[in-house]
Design brief:
This protein is an alpha/beta fold. It contains 13 helices and 13 strands. The strands form 2 sheets. Strands 9-8-7-10-11-13-12 form a 7-stranded mixed beta sheet. Strands 1-2-6-4-5-3 form a 6-stranded mixed beta sheet. Helix 11 links the parallel strand 8 and strand 9. Helix 2 packs across helix 3, helix 2 packs across helix 6 and helix 8 packs antiparallel against helix 11. The longest helix is centred in the N-terminal third of the chain and has 20 residues. The chain starts with a strand and ends with a strand.
């Protein structure tokens, strides 16, 4: 297992998947409001917008480092964030935009050198985290370091946590139960990553390398809170995307017809301590209800050429997803797109990326009503 125990066994430094890294919880929830000088409601409203948010959607810091990396980004979200944390308290920002960018650029160059040299810098200076009961970590310190590493494509970040939090996250009993199921199922590959140290050496078929499908989807959604948004994950497989969205506060229901996937999905929910509702069934055979957002990744192409099943699938999709649909194709993306646009109320499509998985060239995009 990656990591080492330090400080008399009271703390652990280990690698944490970027999917589990969230910004700090808000000051009122953490009872640290009294530590903010010149506290105002306007400051708190701004602060709340960026609190308890996945690092993938932590826009100000993410866009700053994407800008320094030449990834067609702008530093404006970061400069505005910095300005607002001061002016909302009636304070003058201590640095001008130019001064701030120069300072952050120097820090960026130092971190870039540390990463390129494969030095121990990030292990020696880990981010500080606290485990959240919903199965992720809130960062207490190190938002810039974590955002830099994420934008550089690093999928696991060194973090320092209490030994108690480490034991809770590792969840050794449930990890052993997952391994027993995988062995009994004779699985040779895991479709999507398992976000637990006991499985770091297990390869997954999808979503290992930045940018992943999840990265594209969360970048598209932006920093707005997803708490309370109803999400339907159609063909959720072993639940990776459903759990990631549930950690964001969405109310997620997964549909998966394969009982073997469902058996593992259930144990992974227990292991990762992130739960969502799920139904073992074929999507076109059930009435799942109505949802704000849908996730349909590499599913529709299985039924699109079966006239009766394809028609029933699209009718159910149209009735179930009311606003937005993330979709990934099989190897005939144009045919799939045409069928969805011609047989549902989705009126707009935006391509997000060309993707490749399980031997097929695919397309990832979003449909809107």
């Amino acid at each position: 297992m990656a990591g080492s125990v330090a400080q008399g066994g009271t703390h652990v430094v280990c690698e944490v998947p970027v999917e589990l890294l969230f910004s700090d919880i808000d000051v009122k929830s953490s009872n640290t409001e009294h530590l903010i000088s010149s506290f105002t409601d306007a400051w708190y409203e701004h602060h709340l917008r960026h609190s308890n948010l996945s690092i993938m959607r932590f826009e100000p810091h993410r866009e700053l480092f994407r800008y320094f990396l030449g990834q067609s980004a702008s530093p404006k979200p970061y400069l505005e964030w910095y300005r607002m944390i001061h002016v909302t308290r009636g304070l003058e920002p201590p640095m001008s935009p130019g001064q701030l960018l120069r300072q952050r650029k120097r820090e960026f160059e130092n971190m870039k050198k540390g990463l390129a040299d494969n030095s121990s810098f990030f292990y020696d200076h880990p981010i500080e985290v606290v485990y959240h009961p919903s199965g992720y970590f809130n960062m207490k310190d190190g938002h810039h370091r974590a955002s830099f590493l994420y934008c550089c494509g690093v999928r696991r970040v060194f973090a320092r946590m209490s030994a108690e939090d480490h034991a809770t996250w590792v969840n050794a009993e449930q990890a052993a139960a997952v391994k027993r199921i995988v062995k009994a199922q004779q699985r040779r590959l895991i479709y999507t990553p398992i976000l637990n140290p006991a499985f770091y050496d297990w390869r997954s078929e999808r979503d290992e390398n930045y940018p992943t499908r999840l990265d594209y989807m969360l970048h598209y959604l932006g920093p707005d809170q997803l708490r309370g948004v109803r999400v339907l994950d159609i063909g959720c497989n072993i639940g990776y995307h459903a759990r990631c969205l549930a950690r964001e506060g969405a109310i997620v229901t997964g549909i998966e017809h394969d009982p073997v996937h469902c058996e593992l999905l259930k144990k992974l929910n227990d292991l990762e301590q992130t739960h969502f509702d799920w139904i073992q069934a074929s999507f076109e055979d059930i009435e799942p209800g109505r949802f704000d957002m849908g996730v349909l990744l590499t599913v529709f192409y299985h039924v699109m050429k079966k006239e009766d099943r394809g028609s029933a699938f699209l009718a159910k999709l149209n009735a179930s997803v009311t606003r937005l649909l993330f979709w990934e194709s099989g190897d005939e993306p144009e045919s799939e797109k045409r069928m969805i646009l011609e047989n549902t109320d989705f009126a707009y499509y935006e391509k997000l990326a060309n993707t490749f998985g399980t031997g097929k060239h695919r397309e990832l995009g979003v449909f809107l009503k």
